Amino acid sequence: MVHGLSPYVPGEQPKLQNLVKLNTNELPYGPSPRAIAAIQAAADDSLRLYPDPGASALRETLGRHYGVPADHVFVGNGSDEVLAHAFMGLLRHERPLWFPDISYSFYPVYCGLYGITSRSVPLADDFSIDPADYLPGEAGSAGAIILPNPNAPTGRALTRAEVERIVAGNPDAVVVIDEAYVDFGAESAVPLVAQYPNLLVVQTLSKSRGLAGLRVGYAIGQPALLEALDRVKNSFNSYPLDRLALAGAMAAIEDTDYLARTCQTVIDSRETLVAGLRQAGFEVLPSAANFVFARHPGRDAAALSAALRERGIIVRHFSRPRIDQFLRITVGTDAECRTLLDALAQILS
Ligand code: PMP
């Protein structure tokens, strides 16, 4: 059976040192020092004991942070695992699962893995998502919907009102909003959860909290949806988070000042990077994420990516129709962005 699968190809994690690594949307800064201290403090004899399978302390911390009860929070080993559980437990339906034709490339992989039929909904000409395209109409109605907001790899975001239009317009379909990048300037759908039993919002500590290496993701939704995720989790991996991850995640969530500071720094660097890229002749899509999606009208994106690599700078290029002339560039430190812009100036001259 499985030989028919086409697995997801993750962004490269090169072994070489001293590269300017702008290819996988990690934070260019470390996590909150309080998270590191909490992980160190948790590394003691208690590691001989299993962790809390229900992660109740972390779920309470997340619930407090988002203003929802702890029974509205589900946690997993990175949002990829939470999403996988959602595909298996919630998104299979007689009618197809709808998602944008250009979005997170793990979605079609999960569909293949779990035998879910899907319909890819084309982005608008300006690479935005049009909420009207997700309402029941000529194309039928969705069995379920999943969207990243902001979208990846474009970086374009929907407003909360636009997300609400999709959720309210599909009362019989589960709608998953994948908010991996939401903290960098988009509006979260979490405040809609109390009102909409069909809405599940998925977030991660991998991006804005600088903890991709800890593998912690979570979903916020009403308990009836989370029960389906729990059933999958308990059939699959009843201890998704270890004691170190639980301790680090709680401290990271509680350090709201650190989150606000690092996100603002990234947003400021993004605006400088966008201005520099535009000055160098690139067309850059508006981004509400910690990456930008840019193309140069006169230059081949694959060749640009290769030329940057020769100079020790790694960005992401997707050889997919419609986006094969774009580069997805993670917002690094100001110094890394400067290095990238200097290299591009050399390459383009
Ligand atoms: N959703 C989107 C849109 C992403 O780009 C990523 C990161 N590749 C993830 C989810 C998964 O992130 P993680 O498993 O690290 O939480």
Please supply descriptive tags for the structure shown above:
alpha/beta; Aspartate Aminotransferase, domain 2; seven-stranded mixed β-sheet; 2 domains; Aspartate Aminotransferase, domain 1; 14% strand; three-stranded antiparallel β-sheet; 349 residues; binds 4'-deoxy-4'-aminopyridoxal-5'-phosphate
In short:
With 349 residues, the chain is an alpha/beta fold.
Notes on the structure:
The protein is of the alpha/beta class. It is built from 10 helices and 12 strands. The protein is 36% helix and 14% strand. The protein has 2 domains: 2-30 and 257-348, Aspartate Aminotransferase, domain 1, CATH 3.90.1150.10; 33-255, Type I PLP-dependent aspartate aminotransferase-like (Major domain) (Aspartate Aminotransferase, domain 2), CATH 3.40.640. The strands form 3 sheets. The chain has a 7-stranded mixed beta sheet with strand order 2-8-7-6-5-3-4, sandwiched between helices. A 3-stranded antiparallel beta sheet has the order 9-10-12. The relative contact order is 0.17. The model has no long low-confidence stretch (mean pLDDT 96). α3 crosses α4 (106-114) and α3 (79-89) crosses α6. The site of 4'-deoxy-4'-aminopyridoxal-5'-phosphate has 12 residues, from α3. InterPro entries: Aminotrans_II_pyridoxalP_BS, Aminotransferase_I/II_large, HisP_aminotrans, HistidinolP_aminotransfase, PyrdxlP-dep_Trfase, PyrdxlP-dep_Trfase_major, PyrdxlP-dep_Trfase_small.
